[in-house]
Write a structure and sequence with these properties.
- The protein is α+β, with helices and mostly antiparallel strands and about 200 residues long.
- It has one domain (about 30-195): minor pseudopilin epsh domain (minor pseudopilin epsh fold, 3-Layer(bab) Sandwich).
- Helix content is about 30%, strand content about 20%.
- The protein has helices at about 10-60, 190-195, and strands at about 65-70, 90-95, 110-115, 130-135, 140-145, 155-160, 170-175, 180-185.
- The protein is elongated and about 90 Å long.
- The mean pLDDT is about 80.
Length: about 200
């Protein structure tokens, strides 16, 4: 009688146990990789939004505003956040004829130039968002570019992880001239940069 080849139950259980251990070791690293990719994507898209707002102001010869978005607003068109919301919930680039931010912007759908989606996981309370975007803006909600491309004020946007395991962050610097720079912060300066 020929002996059948195969695995014993013990061999299969040992293999499954080793696989589970390896998977348990790999999952945290995969999660960190996902956060890093989201952070880089968010910083790149915020850079694109700021650049688009500036160039549209020049092309249209009119003030163009970029504002933090209220993702959870129930309006017919995307709305800027005046009370709720955060920069992590996305941003809106729109032409603002009167260059006055009154809290219910944009006024009409035709004013909207571009709408950007959230960075990572977001919640209505913003306390459990994956990221926080800290700014040096006077109002914290919006930045206006004049028809000549100049920013209404010098501003910095720092995209940080909310998890507390800060390893790196991205900084966007907007000069008063309108020039926009994207910088990866070195690990030593990240904790100080990410404190509100």
């Amino acid at each position: 009688m020929a002996r059948q080849a195969g695995f014993t139950l013990l061999e299969l259980m040992v293999t499954i146990a080793i696989g589970a251990i390896l998977l348990g070791l790999a999952l945290p690293q995969m999660s960190r990789f996902g956060l890093a990719a989201s952070r880089a994507k968010g910083a790149t898209e915020l850079y694109a939004g700021l650049t688009q707002a500036r160039s549209e102001a020049i092309v249209r010869n009119a003030p163009v505003t970029i504002c933090q978005r209220d993702w959870f607003a129930s309006a017919d068109i995307p709305q800027c956040a005046s009370g709720g919301g955060s920069w992590a919930q996305g941003w809106i680039v729109y032409q603002d004829a009167d260059a006055t931010f009154d809290g219910s912007e944009p006024d009409a759908g035709a004013d909207i130039v571009a709408v950007f989606d959230p960075v990572g996981r977001i919640t209505p309370s913003v306390d459990d968002d994956a990221f926080v975007v800290l700014t040096t803006l006077n109002s914290n909600t919006h930045l206006i570019f004049a028809p000549n491309g100049r920013a209404a004020q010098r501003a910095q946007f720092t995209l940080c992880e909310r998890s507390g395991r800060l390893r790196d962050a991205r900084l966007l610097d907007v000069a008063i001239s309108g020039r926009i720079s994207l910088v990866a912060l070195d690990p030593d300066s990240v904790p100080a940069a990410c404190e509100p």
